[in-house]
Design goal:
CATH topology: Rossmann fold
Shape: globular
Distance between the termini: 44 Å
Low-confidence stretches: none
Strand content: 35-45%
Number of domains: 1
Number of strands: 5
Mean pLDDT: 93
Largest sheet: 5 strands, mixed
Helix content: 25-40%
CATH architecture: 3-Layer(aba) Sandwich
Order of helices and strands: EEEHEHE
Structural class: alpha/beta
Strand order of the largest sheet: 2-3-1-4-5
């Protein structure tokens, strides 16, 4: 039996009103993509996704340093956490 790796990508669009979550899987991978309007929703969803087995979370570039730290505090050291950055 192959273990499944569950990844998540959280996209923060400040001022958005609803959280939208879509999940797909193929073979040993599952991915959840969420569009989130505020940090409180991102923190809540992070906890839920970890409870569902997410092992890696990628954050959009719109998460500032304080928001990344808040997500890290919830995720703990065992969850891989990254943030998209743009090269200018």
């Amino acid at each position: 039996m192959t273990s499944r790796q569950h990844l998540a990508f959280l996209i923060l669009i400040p001022g958005g009103s609803n959280t939208s979550l879509s999940s797909q899987s193929s073979g040993p991978y599952a991915i959840s993509v969420a569009v989130i309007g505020d940090l409180a929703s991102a923190k809540r969803l992070t906890k839920e996704l970890i409870d569902q087995g997410v092992t890696t979370i990628e954050l959009s570039a719109s998460f500032n340093d304080d928001a990344v730290a808040a997500i890290r505090a919830i995720a703990g050291p065992k969850i891989q956490l990254g943030r998209v950055s743009y090269i200018t």
